[in-house]
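pasting for ref. prot 1 ->
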Amino acid sequence: MAAIYSGIYLKLKSAKTSWEDKLKLARFAWVSHQCVLPNKEQVLLDWVSHVLVSYYNKKPELEDEVVEKLWAYLDNVIHSKRLQNLLKSGKTIGLSFSIAQVINKRLSEACSQKTQQNIGTVLSCSSGILSTPSLSIVYTAKCELLVDLLSNLSKLACQQLASDDAVGSQLFSVLHLTFAQYLLIQRQQTNPNRVFGHVTSHLLQPCLLLRHLMTARSWTQADDNHVRQHLNREIRNQVETLLQAGLFQPELFSSYKEELLPEQELQEKKKGALKNLLLPVNTVQTKLGSDFCEPALHGAVVAGSVSLLYKLFLDSYCKTENHLVCFHMFSRLFGCLKLSGLQEGMREDTLSPVDWSTELLALEQLLNLVLSNDIYNIASDRIRHKEVQFGFYRKVAQMLMSHSQASVPAWFRCLKLLISLNHLILEPDLDDLVASAWIDAKVSELRTKKPQETLINTMFQTYSKLRQFPRLFDEVLTVICQPAVDELRLPVFSAGLTVKLRECLLELPPNQILDILCLFVEKCQTLIISAVEGSVDMSLKLLSVCSVLHAFLFNMRSLDDITPSPVVLRTQSLLAKMQKGIIQPLMELLQAPRREEEKSDLWLRKASDSALLLVYTWVEVDTLFGISCSKYVSPGAESAGAVTEPAAGHWGISALLPGVKEQCWDRVMKLANSFTSTSKYCLELLTLQKMKMILMQNKADLQALQHAAAFILESGRSSMSRGESEPWDGDIVAISDLTYAAAHWHLIISNLTILLPYISLKDVEYIADVLLKTLVLAKAQEDATDEEPSISIGKVSLGLMHSSFLPEMKVLHCAFMTSLIHQFTRVLSTAARDSVDLPLQQLSAGDIPWHEEILAGCRPIDLLEAPSENKLLKDEVSLSWRTLEKVAQCIVLLAKNGRPVILKESHLESFLGLLEVASLLKLDSLLPSDCTRCFLVLLSLLANTRARVSCSKPLLLKFLSTCFHLLRCLQDGRNINSVLKVFHASDVLEALMASQLTASKFFTDVLTAPVWAQYLQEIQAFLENFLQMIIERRQSVRLNLEKFMSFLESCKPDIDAAQSKGWRNGNPAAGQLLLMAFTTLCHVVTLYLQQLPEKKPHSADVLSALLEPVVLQMVRTVEQGLQRSTSNQPLPVAFIPSVTTLLKADLSHAVQGWQKEPSGFLEQPRIKLYQEFCSQILKELPCAGDNLQFLQFSLQFLTVFCSVPELYPGKETAVTVAFAIKKLLAGPAITTQVIKSMEMELTEVVVQLLGNCSDEEFYTIMRLVLQGLEMRNVWQQKAKEVLSAVTLTKLLLSCPLSGDKEKAFWFASPQIITALAMQAKEACQDQSLISTIVIPILETVAALLRQGEGVLINPHHVALAFSILLTVPLDHLKTEDYRGVFLGIHEVLFSVVQCHPKVLLKAAPSFLNSFHRLVVSVMHEGRQKGDRGNTDEFEVILRCAHLVERMYTHIAAEMEDFTVFSAFIVAQYVTELQKVTLHPAVKKHLTEGIYHILDLCIERDIKFLNTSLPAGVREVFKDLYNDYNHYHKARKHGEEKYTA
C-alpha cells in the first residue's frame, strides 16, 4: 500500500491535478501513516507555504475559496497534535521567512481595506506560529518581520475598537501574544538606537492610538469578557513596557541630554566631535504631530500620550542631577499640546469644550508628575538656571488666567498644582485668580465644585502658612467691590469652603483675623452702606461682604479668659463699629416708610438678608464672647448701661441688640418675614437664640418661650405645606424660596429638644404629620440617591427617625404613631365599602386622648385640686384603654365572621410604604398604649384584609412578611404584655392563623420562591415568641394553648380532605403553614419543659398533657408526608424541621422519664417512623447539592437522630450516614462555598456520629477517608472525591476524640499528611483545582498541625507541610483564589510557629523559603500600578500585607532562637524591595513588620548587610535603616521609657 501513495508529492506539484484534489491529497498525506514520503511533514509545510507565497507574488491565479482553504490547511497543520508531538520528540520542522512576510502582507491589506473579514484563519496561523518555539523563529530571527506584524495587528485592533461592532477575543489574544514575543526580543537587543528606530518608525503611533482607544472605549456586555476584563489591562501594560524599553533606555540618556540642553551640547562639542547625533525628542514630537489617526481623535490621543511618555521618561531618568533635563522634556512635550498654541496667539475658539477638557487634563497630569518627582527646586532654579523653570510656569499660568475655563474641573486642578509648585507663579495674577476661579466663577456641578474648593483651600493654606491671609482677603474684597460680571453672584463661602476656612482661622494669629474684619467693616461703612438704597449691585456687594463677616466671626477662635486684653478690646471695638456703622443704618433703611410697597425690589430683599444676617451674627457672637470671656464687655452694655437680666416679661429686641427700638424692629420683622430667604431664616435663629437666653435665666418666662416656639413653627408652615422644595447646601446666604423649606425643617428638627416642651399639642401633631409626609416621600425617592452632601427635608426626617432622640420625645412619638394610624385608615377606607365599622376607623377617632398617658406623669397638679384632677386624668387614660378593648373585639369578630376588606395592588404598595416608615420607629421602646395600638393596626391588616386574586403574589407575601416582622419587633419591647390586656392570646393566634390559612390558597405557585420561605420564617418567629410569652406570663396558659390547639385540629380535617383528593388539587401551602404551627408549638413547649426546674412538677404535668396531642397530630402529618414521598417525590423542605422538632420532643420525654410505661413516647411504631424518615433523608441527601436549605435542615435532623444510637436500625449504622455525607460532599453541585455554608451543621453531625459510634465503625470511616485521598482519584479526574475526603478529614479534626478512636486517628495522621502533600502537588498543576482541592488541603493541614501539638512528634511529618507550601502557585490567580491560597499558606506557617517550634528550628530554611514566597508575592501584587484595579482586589492585597506584618512581628516576639536568621530575612526583603515600587498602604504594613526583624539585628548584622549587599540593594537598605532609626526605634524607645 505504501508504494501506492509515494507519488503524492508529484501530484501536488502537477499543474494537471485540480486544487480540490491537491487539498484532499495534502490532508490525507498529513494524517495517514500509509503515505510514505521522506521528511513528509516538512515537505507538506513547504508545499503549502510555497503555494501561498507564489499566490501573493502574483504568480498562479487562484480562486479566493481555494486560497482560504490553503490558509485553513496551513492552520490545521500548525495546530495539529501530530506536529506538536513531532516537535516534542526533537524532530526539526521549520517554516520559511517568506510565509511570515505573506502573513504580514495579508494583515496589511486588511488594514488598508478596513475590513476584517476572512482574516480569522490568518490570525490563527500567526498565533500558532508564535506559540510554537521552533516555528516562531521566522519572526524572532528577523525582528523587522515581528515589528511589522505587531504594527499591523495594532492597527487592526484600533479599527475594531473604533467601530460600533462587538469586540471579539481572537485578534486581541494574538496581539497579546505578539507583544509578549516582541518584548522578549526587545530585551535581547544590544543596539538601543536600532530599537529606538523600530519603535518610533513602526510602533509608536499605532501603540499610542491603541492604548487611547482601549482606555476610552465604553465596554459593553456584548464585548468579549476576557478582552474586557483581562486582555484590556494586560495589553495596555505591554504598550507601556514596550515604549519605556524602546524610547527611554539608559544608553539613550546622553542623546536626550544633548538635545534638551543645547548649551551642554556646545560644551561637549568643544571636547570632541559628535558622531551620528540622535534627536530622540524631535523624533517623538514629529511622530506625535503627524496625522496618524482621524483628525477628530488626534488631539485626544496626543493629549493622553504626552503624560504617559513623560511618566515613562521620569521612571527611566529622573534623578536629582537630571532634574533640568526632565524639566526641558516637560516643556517640549507641553509643546505637543494644542494649549501651547494659545501662548503663540492662537484663537481660543479653535478649541472646543471637549478639547479644553482633554488638553487641561493632560496639562494637569504633566504638572502632577513635575510636582510628585520634585523636578522644580525653587532655589536651584533661581541661583543656577536663571529662573528658566519659573519663567515657563509663569507663561503657563498667564495662559490659564487669560483663558478662564471654570466649567472644566482640570482647569482648577492645574491652578492648584501651580500654587503647590510655587505660590509666586500666580501671585501677580492673584486678583484675576480670585475673580475668575472663585468670586465670579459660575460653578454648579459637583464634579467642578470639588476641584474649585480644593484650589481655594490650597490658597487658604498657602497664605495662612505665609501669614499673608490679609493680603489674600484684600484681593477678595477688591473683587467683591468691583462691578459684578453677573447680576447674581454665587455665595462667597460654600459649606465645604467654610470648613476649610475654619481650619485656617484656628491656626492664624487673632490680630490678622481682626485686620481682615476691620478692612471689610470699614469698606462696607465707607463705600457700600451709603449707596445701597435702590441699587441692586450695591445690595449684592453688601450681602457678599456680610457673608464674609459672618463666616469669619462664626469660625474664628472664641475669646476666653487667656486671650490677651488688646485682642479683647479690638474685638469689642470691631463689634461696636459693626453695630453703629452697619447694623443701625441698615435698620433705619429697612424701617423707612413705603418699604411695604417696594417688597418686590431685589435690592430690598438682599438688603434685608444682609441686615438680618449681621444682626444674628452680632447677637450670637456677642452672647458667646460674654459667656466665654470674663474680660469682654458687650458694646451694647457699654452704651445702655450694664443690664444683666431683662425686666420680667420683656424679651424684645433690646434684650438681644441694644440700641434698636421695638417699633423699628417690628417694622423690620414684618418686612423680613415676607421674604422666604435668609432674612426669614435669621429671624427664626434670633428667636431661637432668645429662647436659649430665657432658659439661661434663673426664672424662665414660660409665656415668652411658648410665643417664641410658636413663632418659629408658624414661620415656615406655609412653605412646608406648599410641597415645592430643593435641597439646601447648609450655607445661610444661599437660602432661596425653594431651599427655605429644607433650612426651616432642619432648624426645627435640630432644636426639637428646646422647642418641644413649649409648643401646643396641636403643633406637636403638625410636626408629626409633616414628619410622616416627608418620610413617605423620602422613602419613595430613596433610589434616586443624591451625590451632593446637601440637606433635604427627607434626609432631615430620616435622620430624626434613625436617631436615639425620638423615643425620648414621648409626646412626639405618640403623635407620630397617631398620624401613622390615620394614614393607614385613609388607605384602608378607600378599599372598604363601608368604613364606619372598621377597627382602624375607631382607632383614628379624634377625641381619644392618647397622649394623656405621657402627660399624666409630668403635669404639675395643685394639692387642693388633686383628687378631682387625678380622677379626670384616670378617666381619660381609661377611655383610651376602653377604646383599645373595643377595637380588639371588633378585629376578632370581623376575623371570625370572615368579612375582610379586599385590597388592590395599589393598596398593598401604599401599605408597604407606610410599614417601611413604621419599621424606622424603635418599636421596642413604645409606651403600653402605643405598643397596643401598633399591635392592633398590624393585626387588623393581617386578619381583616384580603388581597385580590389578580394581585402580585410576591408583593402580597412581602406585605404579609413585613407585618409579621413588625409584630416580632414589638414583641421585643418591654410593654408587649399590655397587648394581652385587651384580648385573649388564643384569639390573636386564631385570627392570624385563620386569615393566613385562607390566604394561602393563592400561594401554591410560589412555594419554591425565596419570598415564601421568608414569609414562613417570619410567621414562625412571631408564633415562637408569642407562645413563649403566653407560657412565661403563667396566666391561663392551659386555656390559651388548648384553644389554639383545638383550632389547629379543626383546620386539619379540611386540609387533609383537600389533599387526599390529590396533591395538585389540594392546598400544599396551607399544609405547610399548619405543619409549621404544630412544629412551633411543639418546639416551644419542649424547650420550656427542658428548662423547667424539677421543683415544679405541676407546671411540667400541664405542659406534658398539652404536648402529647400536639405530638400525635404531628406524627399523623409526618406519616402522611412520608407516604406521599415514596413515589420518587422528594420531601418538602418545610417538612424536615418539623420531624426534627418532633424527635426532640419525643426524646425529651424519653430522657425525663415522665411516662410510666416502659416504652414511653418512643414506642416501636414511632422508632420505625424516624428510621424510615432517616432512610429517606439519606437517600435524598447526595442528590440535593443545589438546595442549601434542604441540606441544612437534613443535617440538623441527622444531628439529633445520631445522638441516640438506640434509634439506628440494623442496616442504618454510623458508617451508612458517614458514607452518605461523603457521597454528598463528592456531588457535582457541591462547591467550597456550599461546604462553608453548611460547615456548622456538618460538624455537629460528625461530632454526634463519632461520639456514639463503635470503634470498628470509626475504623471503617477512617478507611473511607483514606480511600478518598488515594492518588488514583486525582489521576482519574475525580477531584470531588478528593474534596470530599479532605473535608471529612477537616471535620474529623473538629471532633473531640478520645480513647482508641483518638489513637487510631493519630496513628493514621502521617499517612494523611503524606497523602495531602501528594494530592496538593498533583492538583497544583491544574489551575482549576486551586479552589477545589489546594485551598481546602491548606486549611486541613493547618488544622492538623494545630490539633497535633504534642502528638505529631516525628519532625519529618511536620516538615512535609513545607513541601506543600513550596509547590502551591501564587502567580496568575483569581483574586478569590489568591486570598484563599495566601491565607492558607500563612495559617500553615503560623500553626508550625505556634505548635511545633522545635521542628521549626530544624527546618528553618524551608520555613524561610515558604514565608519569603508570601513576601515576594505580596510585593509583586502590591506594587504601584497605573491601573489600580478594583477596590475589592486591593483590599485582599492589603489583608495579605497585614498577615505578612503579623508573621514578622510574631517571629520577632516569640522566636528568640531565630535571631541568627534576622540579617538573612532583612537581606531577602530589601533585595525584593529594590525591584518594585510599592503602594504606600502595602508598604506601610510590610515596613512595620520588617522593623520588628531589624529589632533583632545586632550591630554586627548591620555592618554585614552594609558590606555584603549589592550596590543598588545597599541604597534601599540604608533608606530602610534610616527610617527605622528615625521612626520605629525612637518610638520604641519612647514607649520603653514609660513601661514598668
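and prot 2 ->
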Amino acid sequence: MEHFFQEAYKRNAPTCDELQPAPDGEGGDEGVEDMAMLEDLHDGAIMHNLFLRYRQKRIYTYIGSILAAVNPYQPLAGLYERSAVELYARHHLGQMPPHIFAVANECYRALWRRQRSQCVLISGESGAGKTESTKLILKFLSAMSQHSLEVSSKERSSRVEEALLESGPIMEAFGNARTLYNNNSSRFGKFVQLHFNQKGSIQGGRIVDYLLEKNRVVRQNVGERNYHIFYALLAGADHQQMERLDLSPSCAYHYLTHSGGPPDNGADDRGTFQEVLNAMRTMHFTEDNICEILRLLAGILHAGNIHFVTAGGAQIASKSALSRTAELLGLNPDQLAEVLTHRSMILRGEEISTPLTVEQAVDSRDSMAMALYSQCFNWIVRKLNDRIRGKDDFKSISILDIFGFENFEVNHFEQFNINYANEKLQEYFNKHIFSLEQLEYNKEGLLWANIDWTDNSECLDLIEKKLGLLALINEESHFPKATDDTLLEKLHSQHSKNAFYVKPRVAVHYFGVRHYAGEVVYDVRGTLEKNRDTFRDDVLHLLRDSRLDFVYDLFEHVLSRNKRDTLKSSCKHRRPTVSSHFKDSLHSLMATLSASDPFFIRCIKPNTHKMPEHFDPAVVLNQLRYSGMLETVKIRRAGFPVRRPFQEFCCRYQVLMRDGLTAADARGRCAELLQRYDSSATDWQIGKTKVFLREGLEHRLEKQRELVVLRAAVIIRAHVAGYVVRKRYRRLVGCVLLIQKNYRAFYWRRKFLLLRWAALTLQTRLRGHMARRLVRRMLDESQARKREQEEQEERERQRLEEEQLAQEALRRREQLAVEPQLAQKHHSPDTWKKALDESSQTLGLFSEEADDKALRPQEASQVEEILRLEREIQSLQMKKERQELSLTEASLLRLQLLRDQELKHLEDEACEAAQHFLRSLNFDEIDECVRNIESSLGVDGDQEKEDGWRRADREEEDVDEGFEADDEAVKDSPNPSEHGHSDGQRTSGIRTSDDSSEEDPYANDGVVPPPPAAVLLLEPACELIPPDEDSDYDRDDESAVASGGSMAALSNANNERWSPDGCRSSGTYNSSGAYRFGSEEAQSSFEDSEDDFDRLDTDDELSYRRDSVYSCVTLPYFHSFLHIKGGLMNMWKRRWCVLKDETFLWFRAKQEALKQGWLHKKGGGSSTLSRRNWKRRWFVLRHSKLMYFENDGEDKLKGVLDIRTAKEVIDNADKENGIDIITTERTYHLVAETAEDASQWFSVLSQVHGSTEQEIGEMHDEQANPQNAVGTLDVGTIDSACAADNPERPNSFVIITANRVLYCNADTPEEMHHWITLLQRAKGDARVDGQEFIIRGWLHKEMKSSVVGVAVGSKASLKLKKRWFLLTHNSLDYYKSSERGALKLGTLVLNSLCSVVPPDDRVFKDTGYWNVVVHGRKHSYRLYCKLLNEAIRWAAAVQNVIDAKAPIDTPTQQLMLQIKENSLNPEVVEQIYRRNPILRYSQHPLHSPLLPLPYGDVHQASGPRMCSTLQEEALAAFARLRQLEGAADPAPGIGALLRACREPRALRDELYCQLVKQTARPPGPHGPANLARWKTLACAACAFLPGRSVLAYVRLHLKRTREAFPGTEIERYAAFALDALKKTRGRENVPSLEEIRAVVARRDMSTTVHCHGGGCCKITINSHTTAGEVVEKLLRGLAMEDSRNMFALFEHNDTVEKAIESRAVVADVLAKFERLSFSPDERGADWKLYFKLYCFLDVDNVPKDSVEFAFMFEQAHEAVIRGQYPAPEETLQFLSALRLQYLLGDQSPGAHVPDTSQVFPMARLRTRVQNSARSFAPGGERSGTSERKRSSFLEGTLRRSLRGGSLGRRRSDADNGLEAWLREEAEAIRTGLLDKWSKLRGVTREQAMRKYMALVRDWPGYGSTLFNVECGDGTFPLELWLGVSREAVSVYKRGEPRPLEVFPYDRILSFGAPLSNTYKIAVDGRELVFETQTVMAIAKLMKAYVGMMVKKRYSNSQSLGGHCGVR
C-alpha cells in the first residue's frame, strides 16, 4: 500500500520536492484535518492525506467548509453518540475535529446568522454513504430542535422531529435495496425539507421523492436484491399473517429469485420488519392501513409466480398463483387472467380481445406489479407528508439524498436518468464553488488568479437542450410506431459529431455519453416503454374495479392512455413522460436549492467490494479527479468563502468597533477592524462593496464577538438582577404598608360604629317624644278644619248652580255660530271678530253684560289659536323654501367642485403619462422608424382619409369588453398593475404608461372636445361599472365576439359618446373599472397596433418585429459572434450566438442557410416510380436558391432551383411525406424522412415562394435552427446578465442561471452592452407579486371570429395573434409583448377543474400548427406553435400546474366524507341527515352542480349534446328530474335522463347525488312525485354504477330509507335499487323503454329467442341476466345439459349474425336493438336473438334422435346454402332434395315447392357462371350436352356483344346475357333437384335428416366454421376460406374440400386484428395476414376454442394431481 502511494505520488507530483509522502508540517502520519492547509496540492497528496486519516478511522476531512467523508463500511464506536451531538453543538466549525455534526451545526447556526434558508447537498457514487449521512444530519437537527424548546409531554408526543426520524425506516424499507456496490442503496431520490420556527425548533417538514426504480420490483441484476420490504415481510411476519397472506419462504417467489444471487445472510430482515411496523404506528398508520399494505405486497409476490404457456397465444399455466393473486388484490380471477393474456381494443364500435404472446403476457404481468408497488410507494410518501406537515413561515434546512453516479456492465434508462441528475448536481457544485466565487472576486476587484476546473455544461447541453437526448427520447415516445431502433438511429444521426456523445462501432443497441465521472454506455432497449410508463387500460380498469378500497384508491386518479373516462383531456392526450417529468422535477429542485445557501458533503467510496479497512487508491483517485477535488482544495485554500457587504459587516461586528477606529465610512472601519485581527492581510481582502474573509478569520471574529457579547451580557444580567431584587423589595414594603393601613382602618371603623350606635339611640328617644306632642296638636286642628269645610260646601253648591245656568246659555250661542266660524276660518281676525259680534247681538238671550263676561275669554282664546297656527304654517313654508334653495346651491357647488377636481385629476394623469412616455422614448433610434411608419400610413395625407383608416382599423380591432379580472385574479397575476388601477384609485380615459408604448404617438392628433358642464351634471360624478365576477378574463376572445357589425356599433358608440353639439350619445362603454364620462382614448387604449399589418403580412417574426419597432423597443432578435468559455479545458471558443424566441443559442458557425437537411429526390425521369430511382441528396436553402449536393460536405453540387420563380409548391404529405416543386421545365418530387420534417420544409419553401427579396433577407437574418445549435439556453432561466471585470478579456460579460455560469466575450463594448440589455430586458421579472413563472414564451392565440383571416396551411383558415404567454403556479396570462410593464390582455386562473387538450395530429395536418387548448371556468385558450416539442412542453407544464392544485371540494363531497368518517356512529349520521341542507328536497333549480365537474367542451367527452359544458349538463339533468315528477308516463323521460348522464362518469355521480338529495326528505314521501323519483333511482341502479365513494353514499341512503319506511312502496323501491346496485355490471347502452317499464313495475320482462328452422321460445329475463345464463336456461329446457358442444346466443338480422359474449347482459343487447331501430342506417332491419351451436367440440357422439342433432342439421344446411360446403353440384342437388323431403315429405303435384335459393347455394352457381364467362374460349372442346349448350349460348352472347355499338351498350348486353345464362342454369338446377326429390319417395323426415348429415360429415372439415378471407401477399391464393375448428385453424382455397395448410393451436403464438379489416396469425415465426370483414367473429371463435382447450387440459392436470403443469 505504501509503495502504491509512493508511485501515485510520483506520477502526480510536478516537482522532485513532492516525492516525499507528506512534510512534517502537514500532519506527519496523522494527516491534516483541513486539506486547504496542504502545501503540496495535487491528487496524490490529497489521496494520501485521506488514506492516513482513514487508517486511523478518521473518516471526515475538511476542505474549508466542505466535508469529505470516506465510507468505513463498519460501525465506529462513540462517533455518533448523544455526547458527540452535545459536544459539536457547543463549538463552531473548525474548533473540533472534522465531523458531519459540525457541518450540521454550522448549517443550523447559519439560519439566524445569514437569515436565509440553508441546504445540504450530499453527493457521491452509489455505496459511498449518502443515506447514512442524511440520517446523521437529521439526527443532529432533531436533537437541536428538542434542545431549543422545552415543551410539555402532550406536545412532545406529536413533535415533528420524532416523526421525521421514524419516517426513515419506512422510506428505506420501501425504497432501498442491495446492489453490487451498496447493501442499502437508495433506489429513489429523496429531498427532505425541514421548516424551523424562530425559536429554533422544527415545526414542519416535507419529503419529495424522485424517480423510484420500479423495474427492480420485477427484475434485478445478478447478485442484487429486490426492495428490503419483501424480504422483511417474509422473515418477520408471524404464523397468522403467513397463513392469511399465503406466504412461503423467499426462494418460492420468482420476483425474489430472478437475480439468482445468494441470500443476504448479513441482513436483519426480521428486525427490519418490526422496525417498519413500529415506525408505521408512530406515523399514525392505522392497523387497517398496515394490513392493506402487507396484503398488497403479498399480492405482488404471488403475481410474479403467474407463468404462461403458448396455446393459441399466451395462456396461464399456474392457476393457483392466479387465484391467490386475485384474492389478495380483490379481483376476479377470470378477469385477471383475461387482461393478463389478452389485449382489448375497440374495433368498429365493439370491444375485441386478442391474445398476447408469452413475452407480452409477462410484460403485462410485470407492468401491473410495478404499477401496484409504485402507487403504494406514492401513497406512503403522501401519508408521511401529512404526518410531518406544518407551518413554513420562517426559514428551512433542506437535505438532498439522491442516487449516486452509476456505471454497471449493462446500463439502462434508469442509469441514464440517475447520471443526468448527478450531472445537474455537479453543475450546481461547479457554479457555487468555482463560477460564482471567481466571478465575485473579479467583480469586486480582488487580487485573484483564476482557477480552471472541469466544466460539464456541454455534456448537459447534449442531454437537455432542444433536440438533445431527452428531447429525442420524449419525441419518439409520443409516436406509436416508434421503436428503440428508430430512437437509436435518431440519436446517432443527430449527435454523432458531438464530442460528448459516443457511438459504438460494433454494438447495435448501445449509445454512450461522456459524463463528468467517465464514459457510460447505455442499452437503448426498453427505453421508450419505460419512458412512456403506461400499462394497458384494461389492466388499469380491472384494478379500479377491485373489491378492496385500498387498491381502488391507489388507481382512482391514475390517467389511462386514452383517458376515455375523463374530460380533462382529449383522447389523444399525451401524458408527461418519465424523463420529462423527472427533468421538470430536477429543475424545480435546482430552483429551490438556488434560493438557499449550500453546504456540500462529498462521500467517497474506499473500495468497490464494501470491505471495511480496505482503501483502494485507484478507486479513490478516480473519484477525486472527476469530482474536481483538487480544484476545490485550491479554491478553498486561496479563496474567501465568507462575503459580507460593508454595512452588514459593520452591523454584525459593531461591538468590536467601539474603540480605536477612526475611519468615518463603513469601508474604512471594516479595514481597520480586520487589520487589527490580521495585520498580514492574508485572510481577508476589501472589495468594492463587500468584505471577503477566510473561514478561520471569521471564526476568530465570531469568537471575539461572542466574548464581548458575553461580557456585555454579564453586565446586563447584573443590572437586571439588581432591578429584580429592588423590585421585589419595593413590593414587600408595599405589602407591609397595605397590611398596616387595613388594620388601622378596621380599628377606627369599629370605634366609629360604636359611637354611631349611641348617637342613634339618643336620637330615637328624642324624636319619639317630639312626635307624640305633635300628634296631639294635629288632632285639635283637624276638628276645627272639619267645621269650616261644612260651611264652605254649602257656599260652593250655590255657586255651581249659577255657573250651570250660564254654561247652558253659552252653549246655545256657540251652536248658532258654528257655520260662520268654519266659513271665515282663513280670514283675518277682524272679520272673524265682527262676525262673532253680529251673532251675539242677534242671539240676545241674556243681558249684554252677562254675555260679555261669558263670551270674551272664550273668543280671545280661539282667535289666538288660529293666529298661532297660521303663523306656524307660514314659517314652515318659508323654511322649506329656504332649505330647498340652500340644498340646490350646495348640490350645484359640490357637483361643480367634483367636476373641477376630476378635470384636474385627468389633466395631471395625462401630463404624467405623457412625461413618462416621452422619457421612455429613444428618438435617435426611432426617428427613421417613425418616418417610415408615417409615410406608410399616410400621416401627411388628407385628414378625412386618415379618419377613414382609423374607423376601418377599429372595425377590425379586437375590442375588449369586460377584460378586468376580479380581486383573486389581480392578486394571482404577475403584473397586478396591468389590471387597471388599485383600490380606491380612480381611472380616467387617458391612456396610462403601461400601454402607451404600444401605440403610435403620432397616430391620434385630434383632441375630442370635453363635454359641457350641463351634460356632466346629468349623471353621477364617479359611477363605476362593477367588475366581472369571474376570476379569469380573455380580452382577445371577448373582443373577437364584437367583430363585424356589433364591433362597428360599439366603435361608433364610443366615438360618438360626446357629439360636437354637446348632446350625449346613447352608447356606453362596458369596460370594467372605467368611468362613464371617459373620452375616446378610453376605447383606443385597447387598440392593437398589430392589426394595421395583419392584412399585409402573416409572417410571425416580421409581425413581431414591426410591433417592437412601433412600440419603440429594442428588437428581440440579435446575433453576433462571441467567445464563450466552456468545455473540459475551459477554453474560449468562438461561437455564433443568436437570441431568438426567448432562446439564447450558440453555433459552431454562422447559419447561412434558411434550412438544410437530407431529402430523397426522384430521378430517372417522370415515367417511373421505382424506388431505385430515388436519390438521397443534401438540400440547402439559401435566400431563394434551393441547392442539392451529393453529401452534407456540400462538395458536389447537383442542381439549383429558384423557389421564387417556381410555379407552385405542393404539399404531398399524404404520399410518403412528399413535396412537389413545379417549375416551367419540370416537376421535382422530394420526400422527407418524417412528417414533421416535411411540414417544416413545406412551410419554409412556401414562405420563400411568396416573399419579396427584402422579406427573404429578413428571414435569412433571423434563421437559427435549434437542431444545429451546440447549446441552447432559455432566457427565462437567466438570473442575471452583467459585465465581468476580466483584464485579459475586455468586453466580457457573464450569464448566470440557477445551474450554471456562462462567460461571454464580445468584440466591442457597444456589442457587450447590447447583449446585456437584450438578455435583461427580455427576461423581465422572474418573481412578481410573490410568484415565480414556470414557463413563458411566444404562442399564437386563436381569435373566435374575424372579418379578415390569416390563412394557415392549405386546409384551414385561422386568425391568430402572436402573444407573450406566461404560466405561473396560479394562472396562465398573456401579454401584448414580452417587455416589462406590457399590457396584459387576459388571464386564465387555473384550478383542479381546468383541463388541457394536448397537440392533435389532425390539427397539424390541417393547419401546419401544433395546438394546445386550455379550458378554464369561463374561457378557453386555443394556442398554436410550430414545434411539437414546444406544444408538448406547454401542455405538460399547464397540466402539472392543474394537477398540483388542491382538489375543489363541494359541500356534497364534504357531506359524504363526514358520513364515511362517522359510519360506525349511527347517532352522528342521523344528526347529519337531519341538519345538513343538502339532504333536503329542493323545489327550486340548482345554481351549481353538487359535485365538481371539470371545465371544457362536453362534446369531447361523449357525442353531441344540447349543452356545451358539463356544468350546464348537470343543471339540465336536475331540471329533467323535476319534470318527471308530474309525468303520466315517466319511462321516456327516464330514458332521456339516463342517456344524457351515462357519459362521462362524472355525470353519473352527479345524477345519483341529485337523486339522493331529492329523495332524502321530500314534502310528500308517499305521493306520486316522490315515487317518480324513486323509479328513476331504480332505473339508474339498473343502468350504471356510480363511483366508489358515491356508491357507499347511495347504499347508506337506501338502507336508511328501508328502515324509515318499512312496508311501503318506497321501501320496496329502495330494496330493489339496493339489490340492483349489487348486480349491475358495465353496460354499453341505456335501458330500453320496455326494460324501464319493467323496472318501474319491479317485474321481469320477456323476450323471444329464435332458432334456425323457424322455432322460437319466450324467456323471462331481468336487467342483470347474462347471455350465459340464458344459454344455460335454454339448455335445461331442451334437455341438453350434457352436451359437449358449446351453444351461444347470436345477434341476427338479414345480413348480420354475431355471437354474444356469455358475460354480456341480454337487456343491454335488447337496448342496442331498440337504439338501432331508430338509426337511419339500420332502419327496417329486423334484429332478433338466435340460439345456435357456436363451437363444435364433439360432432361424432351426438344421438341422432336428440334435439342437438336437429340443431346440427339446421346449421349444416345453413352452411350449405351459404356456399360454405365444398362438394360437387350433384352432391349439392342431392342435399337439396333431402332438404325438400325433410320439409315437404314425398313429392306431390300440388305441393308448394320453395324457392331454389332456400335449398341450394345459388351464390355458388353465380360464381361458377361468372368464372366460366371469364375463362371462355370459342374453340375449346366441350363434353356433354349441357356443356355444348353453354358453349353455343355463350358463343352467341359474346358474338352479339362484340358487334358494333358503344362500349356501354356492349357491357349492358354482356350483363343481360350473363343473367340469361344464370337463369338457364338455375332452371336446369331446379329440374335436376326435382328429379332427385322424386326418387326419395318413401323416405321419412328422420331418414332424410340422417342421410343429409351423413353426406355433410363425409367432408373432413366438418365442424369447422368457414370465413371468407383474402390473402394479398402471395403466400396463398387470393380468395380463401379460413376454417376455425376445435383443434386447428385451416386455410382452404375457396370451394376446395382439402386444406392448403393446417395450423394447430399449439403452434399459434398469437392472433389478432392490427387493423379493422386485417387479421393476423403468428405461427412459428411466420405471420399470416388476411383481409376480411369478419375480423371480430374469427377472433372470438378462436378465443373460445383456445379457452375450451386450456380448460380441458387444466381439468385433466387437476385430476392427475395438479402438479404436472408447466411453470
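The radius of gyration is 49 Å.
The chain has a mean pLDDT of 77.
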